[in-house]
Amino acid sequence: MRKRWLGLVAFSAVVASTGGIRAQQPATAIRAGRLIDGTGAAARENAVVIVRDGRIEAVGSATDIVIPAGARVIDLADRTVLPGIVDAHAHLSIRPDTRTLRGQLEGMEQHDAKQMARIVRNVRVQLLSGVTSVYVVGEVHYNDIQAAEAVEDGVIPGPRIYPSGNFISTTAGHGPAEYRTTNGPWAMRTFVRQNYEMGAHHMKLTITDRARVGPNNGTPYAPGESNYTKEEIDAAVDELHRLGIEATAHANGESIRLAVEAGVNSIQHGGNLTDELMDLLATREVGFVNTYTIGFQAVFDEWSFLDNEAEHARDWLERSRGVHARALEADERRAGRRTDRLDQLARAKAKGVLVGIGTDSMHGLMPIEMENLVDAGFTPLEAITAATGINATIVGIDDEVGTIEVGKFADIIAVAGRPDEDIRAMSEVTFRMVGGRDHTGLSFR
Predict the structure, then answer these.
(1) Number of separate domains in the chain
(2) Contacts of 256 (CB under 8 A, 6+ apart)
(3) Which tens digit of pLDDT belongs to each residue from 348-376?
(4) Cα R_g (the chain), whole angstroms
């Protein structure tokens, strides 16, 4: 069951019951100089987090928490400790290039072995940038499900992966050619069942208001229409909910209305927001995931630097910031579109819409996504909360991740500075834990 976001909540010391926990299972105690718990509450000084069996057993003030005898103690007394970042829109295998969508689709047409090689590198970069959960929104051949199992088994290092399985798309829709074939309500239900059988955690519909391929690429459909009929969207969403899993939708502009009215749980991208659409999202309590950095793919071809030159996530972020800054300076129309989007984000927040963020396939750039929210008028703490607790709430995984609370997975990071005062401090992640596994010693290359 999804939990409704309750906004800022008061910090309180909570000690979990130790009943039923076997004495021989060792605990880990994390001493935090400052703790930001992802709920939206202000940072607290001098806290302790107790981890056992991959989950958070207790969290609270150092004066209230008793560290169990024999516990491994991790001293982060000079650090700010936070929940791991949740990337709420991720494609594991893609590396966008200047051909934009065509380049992405060609990457998904390559041999699975080559795609998996990229996945291994991409998820490592995500982890080293502080991301501990990725919410996948479309891969091919169930590569994301295979990758999720490899990370869970410890075969490769990476964040927790919530796989979606294959794209759900129609003829002339958005996605790889082999999946632009699902037409009609019963075909939608069949596709959902196949993805579910293979292990999808959730699924994404690609709802667009215009043709996305062929000679008519970019041509709008009739006003208020999309690549799907209402019956097709309703069938897919109904089948997903009947199976007990969530539906997310690639949607912008009026296609957002079609998705929300059909009952999807979250919106991906959510571009071209009008006040009416914002009000609809707020009324239906449907959040959207903003994907800022993917907008620079047409001027971005930096992947060789990532693999061959960057020594640290900081290097990668600085290189990417430079590309973005130069692109905005060189193109007034691009800069104008960004200004318009920042205004949409600010107004959506003011209306009470849950605003989340994701990188799409710009791996490792979640800190820049947070910086973009600050540019839109969010406080640094609000941007951090968007990347953690709110992101988890929007995509329905907040019962497991997103905040440092008792019972959640021990997905925990730390930074050297005070990111709630200077959001760029998120570029310096010095500690990483996923489900109790300490990945701090992992090298960038």
Answers:
(1) 2
(2) 267, 270, 273, 277, 280, 281, 288
(3) 999 999 999 999 999 999 999 999 999 99
(4) 21
